[in-house]
Amino acid sequence: MPSLRLTAIRGPYAPEFKARTVELVRAERSPEQLAKEFEPSANAIRNWAQQANRDKGHRSDGLTTPEREELRQLRSELLSAIGACNGWRHESGTPARHQDLEHRKVSE
After folding, report:
1. How far does Cα 101 stand from its chain's mean position?
2. Residue 5 falls within a domain, yes or no?
3. Which one of 7, 26, 27, 97 is at 20 to 30 Å from 50 when CA atoms are compared?
4. Which domain holds residue 52?
């Protein structure tokens, strides 16, 4: 049976730590070297460096950090709007369905 490797889930790293780590990658240190020296995985460090390059305009294969934040905000607003729509109630107290709303419009 293959062994399972359990890793602790850690909260987000400080932006200053990420920025310094990205600087070390740019100074020709490999993500693997830095992962051995510090806590984050090589893959996490590689992702930070790629995102920093997107933010500086050196890569165009994904969203910049401000674009990601805007997308997160828009998704949150959309979910709130959907929740508000789903919160409409029929007179019986059960959630109103689309056809219930259409029927009420016609009969009123």
Report:
1. 35
2. no
3. 7
4. 15-107
